[in-house]
């Protein structure tokens, strides 16, 4: 099993897609990349902690290749906008990849290069060594699965799920 820690805007969006991805055994929404100990949602949203909203995606490489997990990440958000995804603005929504080893860092950098061909503007995804990962509050875990009728899910998450199904249907469950 392998775990990637990825930030691409609101963690609910990445969580929703990876929860439905074959070979993914766990998705944990959380915070990392900042300087504030034991952050919570409200402190992270203040933009003062330095943390990003992220997901820790644990998957089985025998089921889904790591390159596919990373390519999905680049398809699910706009990695060319600095500190913003749609209406979510601030450093906590930055496009980010947090590596644990130099090998993983190189893999992330290769994924950026590979996916740059899909974007006209330069990818600004931050690649940083991971610090402490803080799981988000229970309310944020599997948000889409628990709240599929919420407005945010209809307006923001459902289009991302539709895009994932269009390009990665082989890897997604119902």
Q: Summarize the amount of helix as a percent range.
A: 25-40%
Main β-sheet, spatial strand arrangement: 7-6-1-3-2-8
What's the total number of strands? 8
Using the alpha-carbon principal axes, give the shape. Answer: globular
Task: Provide the gyration radius in Å.
Answer: 15 Å
Number of structural units classed as domains: 1
Number of helices: 6
End-to-end C-alpha gap:
23 Å
Average pLDDT number: 96
Structural class, by secondary structure, is alpha+beta
Sheet having the most strands: 6 strands, mixed
In percent, how much strand structure appears in the residues? 15-25%
**CATH-level-4 superfamily name:** Peptide methionine sulphoxide reductase MsrA
In short:
With 174 residues, the protein is α+β, with helices and mostly antiparallel strands.
Can you put this structure into words, describing what you see?
- InterPro entries: Met_Sox_Rdtase_MsrA_dom, Met_Sox_Rdtase_MsrA_sf.
- The chain is α+β, with helices and mostly antiparallel strands and 174 residues long.
- The protein has one domain (2-171): Peptide methionine sulphoxide reductase MsrA (Peptide Methionine Sulfoxide Reductase, Chain A).
- 36% of the residues lie in helices and 22% in strands.
- It is built from six helices and eight strands, in the order βαβαβαβββαββαα.
- The chain has helices spanning 11-19, 41-45, 66-76, 102-116, 143-146, 151-168, and strands spanning 2-8, 24-32, 52-59, 84-85, 88-89, 95-99, 126-129, 134-135.
- The strands form two sheets. It has a six-stranded mixed beta sheet, covered by helices on one side. The protein has a two-stranded antiparallel sheet with strand order 4-5.
- α3 (66-76) packs across α4 (102-116).
- The protein starts with a strand and ends in a 6-residue tail after the last helix.
């Amino acid at each position: 099993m392998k775990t990637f820690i990825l930030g691409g805007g609101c963690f609910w969006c990445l969580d929703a897609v990876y929860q439905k991805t074959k070979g993914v055994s766990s998705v944990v929404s959380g915070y990392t990349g900042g300087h504030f100990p034991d952050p919570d949602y409200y402190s992270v949203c203040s933009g003062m902690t330095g943390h990003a909203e992220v997901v820790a995606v644990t998957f089985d490489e025998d089921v889904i290749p790591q390159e596919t997990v990373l390519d999905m990440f680049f398809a699910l958000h706009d990695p060319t906008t600095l500190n913003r995804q749609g209406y979510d603005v601030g450093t906590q929504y930055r496009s980010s990849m947090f590596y644990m080893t130099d090998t993983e860092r190189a893999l992330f950098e290769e994924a950026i290069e590979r996916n740059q061909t899909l974007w006209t503007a330069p990818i600004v995804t931050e690649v940083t060594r991971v610090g402490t990962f803080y799981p988000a509050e229970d309310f944020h875990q599997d948000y889409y699965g628990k709240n599929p009728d919420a407005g945010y899910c209809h307006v923001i998450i459902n289009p991302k799920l539709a895009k994932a199904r269009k390009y990665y249907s082989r890897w997604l469950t119902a």
